[in-house]
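Entry 14. Two folds queued back to back today. First construct below, sequence then structure tokens.
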Amino acid sequence: MEEKLKSYLQLQLKFSSSDTDKIIYGMQGILSELSKLMILLIVSFPFGYADEILISTVVLLSIRCNCGGLHFSHYISCFVFTSAFYASVIILSNCPLTNSCLSFGLLMSFGIFALVGPVTSTMRPRLTPQEVRKYSQRVIVLLLFYSSLLILLESLPYRKIIYWVIVLQIFQLLCAKIARKGENYEKFSNTKDL
């Protein structure tokens, strides 16, 4: 089926071979992520956690799309990690959370992100300094937005879910940076095509 789609994109829609590969890669990524989300929703629905999964996904996507994090090369390992991430968010959100702990956690998240910055997959092109700055600014704006909501609206539904998604995402970003052996993206100025 992939070959038929590739042929259609190149012959009928006149995409180059490189553009066709990028389109197919993007479609595979979207289908992979949607299938994981559907499985998680199907499993969580009977336990009453489908709302938590959806809220977590919205917050996580907004941050992760701009800062990256850990990436796995196989569907199963990615699914297991994703499931563990969501389970951790749900479990931790059932624990008491004082305002001082919330503020401290958010402050630590800002600090860690300021030190680590965006971390892309080894399978993606390196970020230019301009891209690092652009994605870092987006994440800072998002973190400020979410932090303001969490601090100002103590009765915000899913407040703890949002908090733990932020904290765990930034923590796994730190893990991704360590896994990349501290590679400093600011040293590189060129990206290469997929």
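Second construct, same run, same settings:
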Amino acid sequence: MDLATLRSAVRTRLGVPASDPIFTDGALTELVNSANHYLETEWDWPWLETTEDIATVIGTATYTPGATWMRTIDLRVANGALLRRVPIDELDFLSSAGTGEPRLFCVTGGQLTVFPTPSAVLTLKHRYVRSEPDLVNAGDTPLVPLSFRSAIVEYASFLALRRSRDEGRAEVARSGYKEWLEQMVKRTARYADTAGGGAEYAPSAKATPAAR
């Protein structure tokens, strides 16, 4: 499901043709992106996890993450141990004159502050949860897996129907979105429920009594 397919799916939910003067490609692109960004805020989804390298500057303790950053998972010096995350007041308590290889960090004011202040140029590995990119071109695809993209369609349909003041159908679409969200949260863990090989027990084995 790319942007073009998502727009088409929303039109199908709404029951409007491609020539509809209200739900144009531009309007539907806005609704699809709004729905996708709403979905991204519901959970720290595994498909939004990513990493970036941050080069330290000698004598500088505070760094700004990438533009897509939403939440930090962890921070480490490349090929080193994880930095321990602490509250900002704990860093405030420590001597500002401390320099060396960072061992602690905090997140405050949309920035990462490390301690001690780097005394050499190092690479920090920042693992974080990012935001979804805006879909612009017809072939653009969201980060959310294909099997869950119907959730975007349901919420975009809810937004469209609410805009049209069709409250009854809007609530149906919102309920559909909630059902998808519940299923997505259930399947967020990337550990399989079985030891592999498909079903743990074949359905026939469960249904058929043991031979005597």
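Quick look at the second one. DSSP finds six helices and nine strands in the chain. Residues 208-212 have pLDDT under 50 and may be disordered.
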